[in-house]
Design goal:
Shape: globular
Distance between the termini: 31 Å
Strand content: 35-45%
């Protein structure tokens, strides 16, 4: 069944992979495991003060067996730059 509403995921940790790439480790709102298929991507919505929300899609860079979701984001574009500047 396809999810039709936004969920607030928790950022477990952030790792600086290179000068302009960071990986964000994500956990679902409940402590339940959420599976995914290799090559799957996930939409991310960013709400910035006084502006309409922006949505971008990122490929998952973790393996389904890892027990978490990881996206690796290059600081390029408004959503990616927001993630780099504001998410810790």
């Amino acid at each position: 069944q396809q999810q039709r509403q936004w969920q607030a995921w928790r950022v477990l940790r952030v790792e600086q992979e290179s000068r302009d790439i960071r990986s964000f480790y994500l956990q679902p709102p409940s402590d339940s495991a959420v599976g995914f298929a290799p090559g799957q991507h996930v939409p991310v919505q960013v709400k910035r003060d006084g502006e309409a929300p922006l949505i971008r899609t990122y490929s998952l860079s973790s393996a389904p067996s890892d027990g978490y979701w990881r996206i690796s984001v290059k600081a390029q574009g408004p959503v990616s730059r927001h993630l780099h500047a504001r998410i810790a």
